[in-house]
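Page 47, continued from p. 46.
Same chain as before, 427 aa.
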Amino acid sequence: MNTVNLTLPQASNWKQLAYFRVFVENDAHLQNARYPILNNKRQQILVTVRLAAKDASGNPAIIPQSDLANIRLIDYNTSALIDFTNNFSGEWTSSRLHQGYTWDRGFLDSIRTLKLEQPALFSDNQHRADIAEPLEVNLPLQVQDQLERQGSDSLTLYNTETTAECPNGYQCIQFYVSTGARAPRRLAARIINGDGTTFRTNYPEVGDDTGQGDRLGKFNSSFEVEPISFPHLPNENFGDRKPDGTGYLKHTPVSSNRFDKQNYHATENHLNIRMPSGRKVPIKSVVHPIELHPILGANTIWGHGKSGQSRISHTYMGYPGETHTRQSQPPNYYSWSDSFWPFSDLLTIAFPNYQTRIANPRAGEVVIGHFTSSVNVYFYMYRNANPGSQIHAKLSMPLSVIDIYGTQHNFTLSLSGDYSNLILNKV
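Result:
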C-alpha cells in the first residue's frame, strides 16, 4: 500500500481527496477481493473506508465527522446505495452495529466444499428458514439490553468516530455488511463534501487503483460479497440421539428417587449441531417465541390425575454453558393430597439432594431437562386452583436456536407416546 505523508492539517474545508479506498477486514492491500458470507442476515463482514482529504489549495484537510457519518456503501456497477440501517430486514444491509456473530472464512470454505461433495444438502434451501425474524427477536440478549437502556432512538445513532486502527494521515470509518441474497454483489464507497461534490470508488477506467485514484477525483476500489447458504442438515445431525433407531434424544440420568410410594426421575438431553464432517457448530442463543403461552410457557408438559396410570412429564432448559435452569416454571403448581407445591419445591421434595440446576452443561449446546413422575396429581395454573383449572396436555412446542455464525435452526420438540423420551424434529 502506498501511504500518504501528511502533516497535521489546519483546515477542515476539504474540497478534494488524495486517497480513497474501501476494503474488508485487514486486507487493505487487496484490490477487488471476494469474501464469502452466510446469507442469514446476521453474519457480517467488517468493511473499512479509508480517506485522506485536501483543501482547495491542495493542503491536507480534515473531513468533519458530519461528512464521515454520511459515507455510504454503494453497488459497484450501478452506484445504488446499500441500505444503512439497524433493521437488518433487507437483502443487503450496512450498519455500524455488530450483531455479535462470527465470520470464519475457514468454516465458510468448508461449506463451499460440502456443496460440491453433497449438493443435495443445499437443494431445498428455498424455504430459507434461517432468515432473520424481526430485530427484537434475534439480536443477542446483550445487544437488546443495550438498546433498551439507551432508548429506541439508539436505533438511528451510529458510531461515527474514526477508528484507532487508522494509520497516521488518514481518516477511517467502518461498516458491517450482512445479506440475505443469493447472488454475489460488488460493493464500493461514496462520500459527498460540503459543496455537494460526490466522490466514488467505482470508476473502472482508473484501473488497479492503490487508493490515490487518477488524481482528478476518480477512484477505483471495491470488494465482492459472495452469499452462501447453510446446508439443510437431516434430523440426525441435531442433538445426541439414542443408537436404537428410534430417533429419540439420548438422555443422561441426573436424579431419581422414590417419595411416598411415587417414582420420580430427571434426565438431561443435549441439543447440538453437527456438520457431516463431525465438526460441531456451537449454539449461541435460544430464540424466545414472540408469544409465549400465558400458562404453558415454552415447555412440553403432560399431567393427569385420579388414575393408577397417572404421570407427570415436564421439560426445562439450560442455555449454552449455563448451569441454571430456564423456562422451568410452568406448570406453576401441582396438587396432591390437597397440598400445593411450586415446581422447584416438588423437585426438592422428590430429590432431597438435588437442586434445580443443570448437571451437565456444555459450551455451545442447549440442555433440555426432562422431569417425570408417576405421582397421581393435577397440574394447576395457580395456587388457589380447583379441578376446573387443571392444565391440559401440551405434547410439543417450537424451539429455535441461533448458532455462532448467525444461522437460525428451527425445531419441534415433542414428548414420545409414553412421555418418557423427547423427540426433536428439524422444521
